[in-house]
């Protein structure tokens, strides 16, 4: 019979959930997401303190920090992966980092709004003067982070994919 049992070689080679060789996926993505979200928030605060909060190009430069952190995280994760799995597994790893980055930015924006700070993020000339506008701006920031994160992920994964020999 061709049953997959706990004694068969395919089962034991693929089942790494109980070994100590597993990568700390969640904690790593959380760490990289919080770091990149915090760095982008600091960059946005610096832009606002310099009076450059309406410069859309400058704000998109802040997402370059996300690209750098994603590349660092993906290189770390790539060293753990088997050959030929970098692109597929790297996409889910980077997507989770990007989600945590967006959530961190939304949380920081909400905290600054609740605390009454004048450094609340603005988007396209709209300031968060009420809770509905805060939600709208936070949603726009979250979507921008997702799009930028996926673009940087594809760039980083193409770079990492070309560094590995998948033919042997």
Short account of what is shown:
Helix content is 68%, strand content 0%.
Description:
With 168 residues, the chain is an all-alpha fold. The chain has one domain (29-162). The protein contains 5 helices and no strands. The two termini are 31 Å apart. The model is unreliable at 10-20 (pLDDT under 50).
| Class inferred from helices and paired strands | mainly alpha
Through-space gap between termini: 31 Å
Q: How many DSSP H or I helices?
A: 5
Low-confidence stretches are 10-20
Helix content: 55-70%
Assembly of the depicted chains: single chain
Biggest sheet statistics: none
List keywords for this structure.
168 residues; single chain; mainly alpha; 5 helices
Topology:
Elements: H1 9-14, H2 25-49, H3 56-78, H4 86-114, H5 131-162
